[in-house]
Design goal:
- The protein is built from 7 helices and 14 strands.
- The chain has 276 residues and is α/β, with parallel strands linked by helices.
- A 5-stranded parallel β-sheet has the order 1-4-7-10-13. Strands 3-6-9-12-14 form a 5-stranded parallel β-sheet. It has a 4-stranded parallel β-sheet with strand order 2-5-8-11, with no helix packed on it.
- α4 packs antiparallel against α6 and α6 packs antiparallel against α7.
- It is globular.
- The chain starts with a helix and ends in a 22-residue tail after the last strand.
């Protein structure tokens, strides 16, 4: 069956009228992985000259990516310089994140293990670099970068969220952290946690929609915390599978109580055997 000429014309017209250019997603992912490798993983040649050369290559690639949406070489150069000037501080923050994992996860034996094997740390790394570009008001690229971590780790952190020092994600799969979330220092979050919005209408796009998590809070797996006016007070512990849409005072323990019964299965009228 021949492809409709009308469809081809419509698609061609749509592509001509795109406000922004399209990124090479493979190139974007490679830049994210290469920067991570340079910052944290062992290199075959770790001489200073080699590191300098790698950084220059990373600068050139970022310039290519940003230029797609800026269309202005001077603006692009400004963004690239601003990002790499911020990189020492980003690196220090990420080392603190890694040390937090090492300190609080009994399964972690070394920082090298965290860098090599922890998806929560990789997701935090991607968040911090995408957040920097978001703050610089680089269009689209921060979202493309953050979605790479989402697809790779199952952890969805919007680059607009604000996250403090020594952030600890354990396991991580299924975590969602919305755009206007504000998280303090030394916060620990486990798998399946949602920090989301109560109302998802487009009219509230520019409003505070996601919760505030103060310092030293622990949020266990499956907890859902919603709303821009919801604040979890410092040093609180949020138990698994709770649903919160109101403030929690500092130093609180919030938990969901369920009843579990255990009995001898020989008393059942027939065996409960399932094959899945």
């Amino acid at each position: 069956m021949a492809i409709s000429n009308h469809l081809i014309e419509r698609i061609h017209h749509s592509k001509q009228n795109n406000v922004h250019g399209f990124f090479d997603k493979i190139k974007t992912k490679k830049w994210v992985k290469d920067l991570y490798e340079v910052l944290f993983l062992p290199l075959n040649d770790h001489s200073e000259d080699q590191l300098k050369s790698r950084f220059e290559g990373l600068q050139n690639t970022l310039s290519d990516l940003i230029n797609i949406v800026s269309g202005d070489q001077e603006v692009t150069e400004k963004h690239v310089n601003q990002f790499f000037e911020a990189l020492p501080e980003l690196y220090d923050q990420l080392v603190l994140d890694a040390k937090s994992i090492l300190e609080f996860d009994p399964a972690a034996d070394s920082l090298e293990e965290v860098y090599l094997a922890y998806p929560g740390f990789f997701a935090t790394y991607v968040y911090r670099i995408s957040h920097q570009l978001w703050n610089q008001k680089v269009k689209i690229l921060p979202r493309v970068i953050s979605e790479y971590a989402h697809s790779k780790t199952g952890i969805d952190i919007h680059p607009g969220a604000v996250i403090g020092e020594s952030f600890f994600i354990d396991h991580g799969t299924g975590i969602v952290i919305g755009e206007t979330t504000v998280i303090g220092n030394h916060v620990k979050i486990y798998q399946g946690v949602t920090l989301g919005a109560l109302n998802v209408s487009k009219e509230k796009a520019n409003q505070k929609r996601h919760p505030n998590i103060e310092d030293d809070v622990i949020i266990y797996s499956g907890a859902t915390i919603l709303g821009g006016n919801t604040t979890i007070g410092r040093e609180s512990i949020i138990g698994g599978n709770v649903w919160i849409t109101q403030d929690v005072p500092a130093h609180s323990l919030v938990y969901h109580k369920s009843e579990i019964k255990i009995k001898d299965n020989t008393s059942l009228p027939e065996s409960l055997t399932f094959v899945i």
